[in-house]
Design brief:
Number of strands: 15
CATH class of the largest domain: Alpha Beta
Distance between the termini: 34 Å
Protein name: DNA replication and repair protein RecF
Number of domains: 2
Bound molecules: adenosine-5'-triphosphate
Family: Belongs to the RecF family.
Shape: globular
Helix content: 25-40%
Largest sheet: 6 strands, antiparallel
Function: The RecF protein is involved in DNA metabolism; it is required for DNA replication and normal SOS inducibility. RecF binds preferentially to single-stranded, linear DNA. It also seems to bind ATP.
CATH superfamily of the largest domain: P-loop containing nucleotide triphosphate hydrolases
Strand content: 15-25%
Radius of gyration: 22 Å
Pfam family, one: SMC_N
CATH architecture of the largest domain: 3-Layer(aba) Sandwich
Keywords: ATP-binding, Cytoplasm, DNA damage, DNA repair, DNA replication, DNA-binding, Nucleotide-binding, SOS response
Length: 384
C-alpha cells in the first residue's frame, strides 16, 4: 500500500490542504522550519499512531488548538493501479484531542479501537538523525526494530505482546510486594512463560528471515563487512531451558530486584563486528551505514511478504555522502518502496539516479507549512 493523499488539521504549522503523492518517490524541499519534517511526522502518525520525534501529542497539535487530525488515503501502491485513478484501497484517520486525552482511529470510516488495526495497513520506516540509536543505544531500540517487522509479518503478534505486557506487570506487582507468595507466583509464571515462548518463537522466525535478507544486502553492496559482522537474536533468557524453570531458579534474585529479569522484555538483537559490539568498534559514519542496511533488509523482508514499506528519509543529505545516498535510493527503488525524502536544497534527482533510470517521482516545495508541487519534466542530468 502507498499513501497517495494526506490531509491534516491543526498539525504543527501544516496547511490544511489535501496533498496528492506519488506511490513511488516524493522529494520535499524547503528552508529550515518550513514544515518538511512535520509532513513526514504526519505520515508517521498513520503508520505508528504517534510522533517519531516527540513523546507527547501536545507538542504536535498547532499552537492554540487542542485537537489534531491526520487523514490518509492509500492505494494498492506500485503493484496496483495508478494513484488518483480509482477509489483508494483504504482510508485511514487519526484524531487526538490533547485536552480530553482522547484518540479516535478510523479505517475506511469505521472507528477501530486498537492502534494495530490502523498501523497494519501502513508499514512506515523512518530514517532520520535519531535512527542510529538502533546500534548505538540500548536493547530497547533494537527490540522495537525487530518487533516492528514481526508485527507486519505476523499481525497476531501484537495481541500476544500486549497480553504479555499485562501479565508481566501483574507479576512485577507480586515481586515488588517483598513477601513470597509462591502459589500465586506460579500461576503467573505459567501464563507468562506460555506468552513469552509464543513471542520468542515469532521473533526468532522473523529474525531468521531478516538475517538472510541482511546478509544479501551486505553482499550486494560490497561493504566488505560480510566476514566479520554478525547479527544474533537473544530472546531474553537461555532458551535451552524452559522459561518457567529459569524463573524458578532465579526466584530470590527477582524478589530482591522487585521485577521480572528474564523473558521477552530482555530480548536483544546483538550486532557485533569481529566479536565486539559495533557501537564500540564502528565509526559514527559506519554505524549510520549499518543501520540503513538493516532498514533496507527490513524493507526486503516485507516486500517478500507482499507489503510495500513507506520510507521517510529526513535530511539524509546531512547524514550520508552521495555514494551512500545513491545506494539507498536505488535499493529502495528496486524494492518498490514508497519513499519521502526531505532536503533543504532543491533536490537533483540526477545525483541519485543515472539518466533514464529514475523512478516516477513528484517534487514539492514546502513553505510556511504549505506544499506546492513542482512540475518536473525530464530529470536533470547528473551534475556530480
Ligand atoms: N505545535 C506547533 N504549532 C505550530 N507551529 C509549530 C508547532 N511545532 C512546531 N512548529 C513550527 O513548525 C515549523 C515546522 O518545523 P519542521 O521541523 O517541520 O521544519 P523543517 O522544514 O523540517 O525544518 P529543518 O529543515 O530545520 O529541519 C517550524 O517553524 C516550527 O517552529
Amino acid at each position: 500500500m502507498a499513501l497517495i493523499k494526506l490531509q491534516t488539521q491543526h498539525f504543527r504549522n501544516l496547511a490544511p490542504d489535501a496533498v496528492t503523492f506519488s506511490p513511488s518517490f516524493n522529494l520535499l524541499y524547503g528552508a529550515n522550519g518550513s514544515g518538511k519534517t512535520s509532513v513526514l511526522e504526519a505520515i508517521g502518525y498513520l503508520g505508528l499512531g504517534r510522533s517519531f520525534r516527540v513523546n507527547r501529542h501536545q507538542a504536535v497539535v498547532s499552537h492554540g488548538e487542542q485537537k489534531l487530525t491526520v487523514f490518509g488515503a492509500l492505494d494498492a501502491g506500485l503493484s496496483g493501479s495508478h494513484p488518483g485513478t480509482g477509489a483508494p484501497a483504504h482510508r485511514l484517520g487519526l484524531s487526538r484531542d490533547v485536552a480530553a486525552k482522547e484518540t479516535v482511529l478510523r479505517v475506511d470510516g469505521e472507528a477501530v479501537r486498537s492502534l494495530s488495526s490502523l498501523a497494519m495497513h501502513m508499514p512506515v520506516s523512518v530514517i532520520d538523525p535519531g535512527v542510529f540509536d538502533i546500534v548505538a543505544g540500548g536493547p530497547g531500540k533494537r527490540r522495537q526494530f525487530l518487533d516492528w517487522l514481526v508485527f507486519h509479518v505476523e499481525p497476531s503478534f501484537s495481541s500476544a505482546w500486549q497480553q504479555c505486557q499485562r501479565v508481566t506487570s501483574q507479576r512485577n506487582k507480586i515481586l515488588r510486594n517483598g513477601r513470597l507468595d509462591e502459589p500465586l507466583l506460579r500461576v503467573w509464571d505459567t501464563q507468562y512463560s506460555a506468552l513469552a515462548e509464543q513471542i520468542s518463537d515469532a521473533r526468532a522466525a522473523v529474525f531468521e528471515r531478516f538475517k538472510i535478507a541482511f546478509s544479501q544486502v551486505l553482499g550486494e553492496l560490497e561493504t566488505g563487512w560480510d566476514e566479520g559482522l554478525k547479527v544474533d537474536f537473544y530472546p531474553g533468557w537461555d532458551r535451552s531451558k524452559p522459561l518457567s524453570d529459569v524463573l524458578l531458579n532465579h526466584r530470590e534474585q527477582e524478589l530482591r530486584m522487585g521485577h521480572t529479569l528474564y523473558g521477552p522484555n530482555r530480548a536483544d538483537v546483538r550486532v557485533k563486528y569481529r566479536g565486539r559490539p559495533v557501537a564500540e568498534t564502528f565509526s559514527r559514519g559506519q554505524q549510520k551505514t549499518l543501520v540503513i542496511l538493516m532498514k533496507i533488509a527490513q524493507g526486503q523482508v516485507l516486500s517478500e511478504s507482499g507489503k510495500q514499506v513507506t520510507f521517510l528519509l529526513d535530511d539524509i543529505n546531512a547524514e550520508l555522502d552521495v555514494r551512500h545516498r545513491k545506494m539507498l535510493a536505488q535499493k529502495l527503488q528496486a524494492l518498490r518502496c514508497q519513499v519521502f525524502i526531505t532536503s533543504i536544497e532543491h533536490p537533483e534527482p540526477g545525483v541519485l539516479w543515472a539518466d533514464g533510470q529514475s523512478p516516477e517521482y513528484r517534487m514539492f516545495h514546502v513553505e510556511h507549512g504549505k506544499l506546492t508541487e513542482e512540475k518536473t519534466g525530464e530529470y536533470p542530468q547528473e551534475s556530480h
